[in-house]
Amino acid sequence: MKQSKLFIPTTKEIPADAEALSHQMMLRAGYIKQISAGTYAYLPLAWKVVQNIQNVIREEMEKIDAVEMMVPAVIPSDLWKKSGRYNTYGDTLFKLNDRHNREFILGPTHEETMTYIVKDLLNSYKKLPITLYQLQDKFRDEDRPRYGLLRGREFLMKDAYTFASSNEQLDQSFNDMEQAYRNIFDRCGLNYQVILGDAGAMGGSDSKEFSAPAEIGEDTIVYSKNGEYAANIEMATSKFIDNSFEDIKELKEVATPNIKTISEVSNYLGYPETKLIKSMAFIADEEPIMVLIRGDYEVNDVKLKNYLDADNLREATEEEIVSKFNSVPGFIGPIGTKVRILADLTVESMNNSVVGANKIDAHYENANVNRDFSVSSFSDFRIVKAGELTEDGKNKLEFTKGIEIGHIFKLGTKYSDSLNAKFLDENGRQQSLLMGCFGIGISRLLSAICEQSADKNGLVWNKEITPYDVHVIPVNTKDDTQVKLAEQVSTAIENLKMSVLIDDRKERAGVKFAESDLIGLPIRVTVGKKASEGIVEIKVRATGDTYEVNKEEAAKKVQELFLNDVK
Ligand code: 9G3
Fold this sequence. Notes:
Helices cover 27% and strands 28% of the residues. The chain contains 15 helices and 29 strands. Helix 1 (21-28) packs across helix 12 (442-453), helix 2 (44-63) runs antiparallel to helix 6 (167-187) and helix 13 (480-495) crosses helix 15.
């Protein structure tokens, strides 16, 4: 391909609002162009990479008998009203009306659509299991789209859906998909961890997340160095050790004038934060709930939401703390409270604790569960801390940041129940279809690959997904010898089944080399001054290794390097 015919709007300046390395480099290398907040055009080189990634995905889906199809992006809202998700996702759902004023949404994911399609068709166990997938843009009106393709409002996803007649079939599909994802991410040259993920909102049970370690990642991954434990912090658990037993003391009210936060109370009364109980006020689907946790921990919203199976969970406002908790912000506590009280396991073994007195400028000392207040149930509601031990006490927990590039779920019958998608089992009984759903964020995957592989000079592609295999650069396009030799070498390389981008533009050498480093093709062949001696230079982008070879052996050397030195 002649570079003069392509469209690669490279630029030197780094846009002010591009913080992520991948975002900066994809802009500078002319791979993407922002159209609006969170929506991007894939320019020719990026689109080639995306298609290469999609072909890797197709090959791996083929191996596990998953079948590609395509559904509309414009979906009637009433499908989402039936599943109950129309309200759950509120503002994040893109909504639109057609000319007859009928309501639609732009699909953010397609559990409902797929269930609607197979319902009444996959009506016998003989037709199950089946896994359908698509490679399609998804729409999510994110509040804060950012980091380029990492968090977009229109983005490419591979979304797959399994319909099965038994848990064994669903497990098989889930395991097949996990292996397929490992193969896909390995072939994309990515390093990643498979971690315990939150299945909460999806109504299912198990879920596994594929997380690519990256500073810019929005996920916090909790893991043990020996690799035995890895979980999204939303789900992570730790061993809780408590040995603070004392004799029960008399409850005592103490004046704490304008002393509100945990650290203020701790300092003012001279107690460590581990002797304080933090009382959090939440509204879960309109119900006021108080959650108690030891002063040195934070409540984990995801664990709480999953425990309550709530659609909407939020912290109460100061006004609600007065009106619904009959308390005073900063002095809220469990004693005398009428709302349901849940408590983290850390509270179960505490005694003689400090709690808010539910009135201005006052706290209690020596508060004890059961004597002074009752808890309706104890559960793990805490956010684990780095340095804590894994539940088996054998390993220390470390934290790192990661980019969620894939997530696989076992859904159960949440969607088939709500859309009445049933099949006849081998005993002639009607059952709801068992479902699994599996996603790869393809746009996000592109960013994650760039985050992990780009260097200060630009992008660096591996051989599986590079837009072109070899970059041939005639340094001086006015020099016939160089131009002819560049064409000869390009043809010889193409004859060895490698794709070539030839930089036939009338640009200065410095510009050509800098842009070649930016767009990141794995191998570069420079045809410069030594062309007259029939010598060309070959450079491996990832390592910088450089070789001078005769023109006759150039193509062979490129092939050898491409096969052996390029990842
Ligand atoms: C929405 C909106 C945002 C969403 C969802 C729904 C995430 C939503 C979870 C999934 C689960 C799986 C199939 C492919 C793999 C992931 N964000 N999720 O359901 F309406 Cl606005 O998408 N779906």
